[in-house]
Design goal:
The protein is built from 13 helices and no strands. The protein has 439 residues and is an all-alpha fold.
Length: 439
């Protein structure tokens, strides 16, 4: 592909994807704002304890959507149109099966999950309500995540962005209506969040009424080999989302011991803002992954390198802007979510915001490099990066640094982990390039 054409296409796709993913991340940020103002610190604590369940549902949808859509794009690049449709059909089948499991979990085990998340008697009922409703709406969340990926990879990124933004704006409006005029409490907040992907799916349905639609449900036998391939390609997206949820669970456990519920509420402000930042990098990675998987299907190695270069430069510019913004406005931002003007909450969150967000350039690098590996069917290095971020390093780092430095250690555990994973990622990339040259 010509350099100018490639850069133009890259700019278009990443701009649309970043806007859309910011909108998608605002599901939880809107809940954070309205719950903090309507229900105070206890509501904010309950929300923060329940969010990992949302991350798990959302991550599952992204895993199947990104994995299936990546495989779809590769097949279309190779002109294997029958296999492309099989990818969509298999993705839809496995998504439906997983959604049923989530629904059953919400009906029968939401109370047990709430206990495991650490909710005490003051916030148990609110946390349980949020967990149960999120799980019952899992089919809508997962279908939305999956179809957004396929519609975008089917040449309609603008509609994907519009669907995500429409869902997000409807969530904001419904949050306000349900919590304040209708006084529905935390149930109103989570109901608004659950209805948002339903509205987004209605917008996405337009794709089926245009000649642009090229993927269809076909009768196919479930292939565990194809499912494994889809999941392998989608696991980095799953772990990227799940990393946030796992970090929240670990940090909530540690902070409850150090600062009790008020510390968890302060961490909730920082963590939910970080979800928005991560969504920017996820949008950048998804836009990059779409073009990468296609040029990889063509066998165009030069274009692969150019796209990765564009993505990393874009990430660095974005990271500098984000950190500068949060450094200058930390006190103001935290006060927006501190309706009770709790001095302790304000101090903990402001200090945390400045330390925690030193991680963002490393987070961006790791997400993009993982997407690069997944897009070029190098599942193992992508999974190593994702697993290191989400499970293998951050958990022991959080316990070790919190033991040594208390709350300061909690805030620094993410930057230290992400920095270390960046060096691992660079080593994997160098090894991958050596292996390609030796072929």
């Amino acid at each position: 592909m010509e350099t100018k054409t490639l850069l133009k296409e890259f700019s278009r796709y990443i701009a649309l994807n970043i806007c859309g993913m910011i909108g998608l991340s605002c599901y939880i940020l809107a809940d954070t704002f309205f719950i903090s103002n309507g229900l105070g610190a206890n509501g904010l604590t309950a929300l923060n304890l329940a969010i990992p369940i949302y991350s798990f549902v959302h991550g599952s949808g992204l895993m199947l959507g990104m994995g299936g859509a990546t495989k779809y794009s590769i097949y279309r690049g190779q002109k294997e149109y029958k296999n492309a449709n099989n990818s969509f059909s298999s993705t839809f089948f496995f998504m439906s099966a997983l959604a049923v499991i989530f629904i059953l979990t919400g009906i029968f085990f939401s109370g047990k999950l709430t206990e495991l998340l650490g909710a005490d008697k003051d916030i148990f009922d609110m946390t349980k309500t949020y967990v149960r409703v999120i799980l019952l709406f899992a089919p809508a969340f997962m279908a939305n995540d999956t179809l957004i990926c396929f519609v975008r990879n089917d040449g309609n990124p603008k509609l994907s962005m519009i669907a995500m933004l429409t869902g997000s704006f409807s969530n904001i409006i419904l949050d306000y209506v349900f919590i304040f005029p209708l006084h529905m409490g935390i149930f109103g907040a989570v109901l608004a969040t659950g209805l948002a992907p339903v509205i987004s799916l209605i917008v996405l349905s337009k794709h089926w009424f245009t000649k642009q639609n090229q993927f269809h449900l076909v009768r196919t036998k479930p292939s565990f080999r194809l499912a494994g391939n889809i999941i392998s390609l989608g696991v980095p997206s799953f772990i990227t989302e799940m990393a946030s949820g796992i970090v929240m669970i670990v940090f909530n456990t540690i902070i409850l011991r150090l600062q009790w519920n008020i510390g968890v509420a302060a961490y909730g402000v920082v963590a939910n803002l970080s979800l928005v930042v991560i969504s920017i990098y996820t949008g950048l990675a998804q836009g990059t992954q779409l073009i990468l998987s296609r040029v990889y299907g063509y066998g165009d190695y030069k274009s692969q390198k150019q796209i990765l270069n564009y993505a990393l430069k874009t990430m660095l510019v974005i990271s500098f802007g984000i950190y500068l913004f949060f450094s200058l406005t930390a006190n103001t931002i935290v006060s927006i979510f501190n309706s009770e003007q709790n001095i302790q909450l304000q101090e903990i969150a402001v200090a945390g915001l400045k330390l925690y967000f030193t991680a963002i350039p490393f987070v961006g690098f790791n997400i993009i490099l993982s997407a690069y590996f997944a897009s070029t069917e190098k599942g193992l290095p992508a999974q190593i990066i994702s697993l290191s971020r989400g499970f293998l390093m951050v958990i022991p780092m959080a316990f070790f640094l919190s033991f040594m430095l208390k709350m300061t250690g909690v805030w620094l555990s993410l930057p230290v982990t992400e920095c270390f994973v960046t060096f691992v990622g660079i080593a994997l990339y160098i090894n991958s390039e050596r292996g390609r040259k030796n072929v």
